[in-house]
Write a structure and sequence with these properties.
By secondary structure, the chain is of the alpha/beta class. The protein has a domain of 134 residues: 3-Layer(aba) Sandwich (Rossmann fold), CATH 3.40.50.720. The protein is 45% helix and 14% strand. The protein has twelve helices and nine strands. The strands form two sheets. A seven-stranded parallel sheet has the order 3-2-1-4-5-6-8, with helices on both faces. It has a two-stranded parallel ribbon with strand order 7-9. Strand 1, helix 1 and strand 2 form a beta-alpha-beta unit. The longest helix has 17 residues. The model has no long low-confidence stretch (mean pLDDT 97).
C-alpha cells in the first residue's frame, strides 16, 4: 500500500503518526501533506502542499498515493465539506484505502457538535467505494492535562463533567493505533472504538495532580455556563470556551467513557497511564 500519505502532518497527532509509521514501516514511502509545507520540513519524509479546502491541491498531493491517513480537520463547522474534498480527490487520484480519525461512539455520542460531522464523513467514506478504516478516537488525555499548570496556579481544577468516567488516552496511543492499522490490510473496512484502559473522573485527575505536586488541588464542578464563563475569564474566546464547556457537559452524559479495550488490543500494550500524562504536563 505504498506510498502512504498523512494529512494534518504538522499537527500534534499527524506528527506522532508519522513517527510511528517510520518506526513500524521503515521501508515505506511516507508523504506528509501540509497546508504550509515548510512546517513539515523536519519530519524526515517527503512533503507535498495540500489544503483541505483546495480540491486542486489535494488532487496533486494524492497523485500516486495508495493509502491515506485522513486526520480530521480541526475546523469545526467546516469539516464535512473539507473531508468531502479529500475523499473526492482521493478517488480521482487512485487512492485505494483511507484511514479516518473519527469520534468515540460517534453514532450515539452526546457531543453532537462533534459527532454529526464525523458521522457525515463516515457515511461519505462508506459510500465512496474506497476501502476504509474508521478509528473512532476517544478523548486525548492532553485535552485535560493542558489545564494542569493553570489548576496548580489557581488552586483548583475546574470543569463541568460532574462525576463522569472519562476513558481518555494519550495522543501518542492513538497515533500508534493509526500506524498499526496502516501496517496491515487486516484492518480494512472495519470500525474501531478506541479509548484508554483506565477511566477516571475529574476529581480523580485533580487528586493525581495533588499527589504529584504535594499541593491541595480539588476538583471544582461548575455548571456548563459558569465553566464557560470561567474559561473566558482566563482568556479563551467565548465560542471556544462555550465549546469546551459543552464537551464537558457531553462527558457528564457518558460521551467519553468506553471499556471495550480495543485501543490496547490494537497497539499491543496498555494505554498511557493518567499519572504519566500528568507528570508530562507538570514537566512541560
Amino acid at each position: 500500500m505504498n506510498p502512504i500519505a498523512i494529512t494534518g502532518s504538522t499537527g500534534k497527532l499527524g506528527r506522532l503518526a508519522i513517527e510511528q509509521l517510520k518506526a513500524k514501516l521503515p521501508g515505506a514511502e511516507l508523504i506528509a501533506l501540509a497546508r504550509t509545507p515548510a512546517k513539515a520540513a523536519n519530519l524526515g519524509v517527503a512533503v507535498r502542499p495540500a489544503d483541505y479546502s483546495d480540491p486542486a491541491s489535494l488532487e496533486l498531493a494524492l497523485a500516486g498515493v495508495q493509502a491515506l491517513l485522513l486526520v480530521s480537520s480541526n475546523e469545526i463547522g467546516s469539516r464535512v465539506a473539507q473531508h468531502r474534498n479529500v475523499i473526492a480527490a482521493a478517488k480521482k487520484s487512485g487512492v485505494r484505502w483511507i484511514v479516518y480519525t473519527s469520534l468515540l461512539h460517534a453514532d450515539t455520542s452526546a457531543i453532537v457538535s462533534l459527532a454529526d460531522e464525523h458521522l457525515a464523513t463516515e457515511a461519505d467514506l462508506k459510500a465512496s467505494g474506497l476501502t476504509f478504516t474508521i478509528l473512532r478516537n476517544g478523548w486525548y488525555t492532553e485535552n485535560y492535562t493542558a489545564s494542569v499548570p493553570g489548576a496548580v496556579a489557581g488552586g483548583a481544577f475546574l470543569g463541568s463533567a460532574g462525576d463522569a468516567k472519562i476513558s481518555s488516552a494519550a495522543r501518542a496511543d492513538y497515533a500508534e493505533a493509526a500506524a498499526v492499522v496502516l501496517s496491515s490490510t487486516q484492518h480494512q473496512n472495519k470500525v474501531y472504538e478506541l479509548a484508554g484502559d483506565h477511566a477516571y473522573t475529574l476529581a480523580e485527575l485533580a487528586a493525581e495532580i495533588s499527589r504529584q505536586t504535594g499541593k491541595s488541588i480539588p476538583y471544582k464542578n461548575l455548571s456548563e455556563a459558569d465553566y464557560a464563563a470561567a474559561l473566558v475569564g482566563v482568556g479563551l474566546p467565548a465560542p471556544v470556551a462555550q465549546a469546551f464547556a459543552a464537551f464537558d457537559a457531553g462527558a457528564a452524559q457518558g460521551a467519553l467513557f468506553d471499556d471495550g479495550g480495543q485501543l490496547a488490543k490494537l497497539i499491543g500494550h496498555p494505554s498511557t497511564p493518567l499519572a504519566a500524562s500528568v507528570s508530562a504536563a507538570l514537566k512541560a
